Each structure stands twice: as C-alpha cells, then as structure tokens.
Amino acid sequence: MKELSEKELKNKAEAYCSAAEHCPSEVETKLRQWGASDDWIVCVLQDLEKDRFIDVNRFCRAFVRDKYRFAGWGRVKIVQALKMKRLPEAAIAAGLEDIDEEEYMQGLSELLNRKKRGVTGRNEYERNMKLLRFAAGRGYTTEEVRKCLKETWEDEPVE
Q1: What is the DSSP letter of 19?
Q2: 60 within 8 A of 91, measured Cβ to Cβ
Q3: DSSP state of 145
C-alpha cells in the first residue's frame, strides 16, 4: 500500500466527514487505517475541526436524536455509547438536552407495547419484570419504565 501524503490524508478525511457526521475518535481510527502517523493525525484532526468538518457538539446532537428516534435507545445507552467514543461530558450533556421528553416517552411506550404482545408470564408482576429488563437493555431507567408501564396498564381494560 502506498504511503499517503498529509494533503491526501486530509482530503480523504474531509470526504469521509462530508459523507456522514463523525466524531474525532472515528476519524482518528480511519486515519490510522490509512497509515497516518500520530503527528499527522493530530494535525489533520485540528484542520478538520477548524474547517468544521468535525464538531463534537453537532455530532452529539445528531447521535442522540438518531438513537432515541430511530434505534429506540434510552438515555443510559446513548450516554454509554458517547462515552465510548471519548467525547467530552459537556458535549454529551448538551446533546441530551435536545431530547423532547414527550417524544422520548412516546417512543418508550411504543417499544413496550410492541414487546408486551410477545411477553408471557404467570402474572402481571412477572410480565412487567420481563418488560423492565428488556427496556433496561435498551438504555431506559427503571423509573422511566415504571412510569410508562403504569400509564400503559391504566389504559387497558381489566380482564
């Protein structure tokens, strides 16, 4: 594999960042795959941030929005994923502020209602515990799930 110059690395990284929103750690990983040295990585990342190809706040907002709307993730799982990308706490907190609480709880409610159809148990408590574990795996807190289950069961007729 031929060695890329700093200009070629920067151009490839700009194209990579133009295609989709990426965080610095993802771009760093790509640059390493392309054979960039540590010094070049630092320089290219600084240039990309200066030219606004990379913006951690913008990335966090987009990531949070996509994960809770389309993937059905809860706050806990979103925060965990963002921390794994080595993003600053302030950017993560700013991204979480963009969550529309009503839409978030509506998404949880729909998720639980879909899952509830296939959950079996000897009693309501057992079914609720299965739903709670399922939602916890998706990153929702126990309190959020309990609140949603309480509202869901209130709407159903007693058999």
Answers
A1: H
A2: yes
A3: H
Q: For the segment 12-38, what is each residue's pLDDT rounded down to a tens digit? A: 999 999 999 999 999 999 999 998 889
CA distance 95 to 60: 5
Name the helix (H) or strand (E) containing 45: helix 38-50
Residues 108 and 144 sit within 8 Å (Cβ to Cβ): yes
Number of neighbouring beta carbons within 10 Å of residue 5: 10
- Distance, CA of 71 to chain centre: 8
Structure tokens at 150: 């309480």
Which pTM does this prediction carry? Answer: 0.86
CA distance 72 to 126: 23
CA 155 from chain center: how many Å? 31
Structure tokens at 23: 């965080």
Minimal CA–CA distance to 63: which of 111, 20, 110? 20
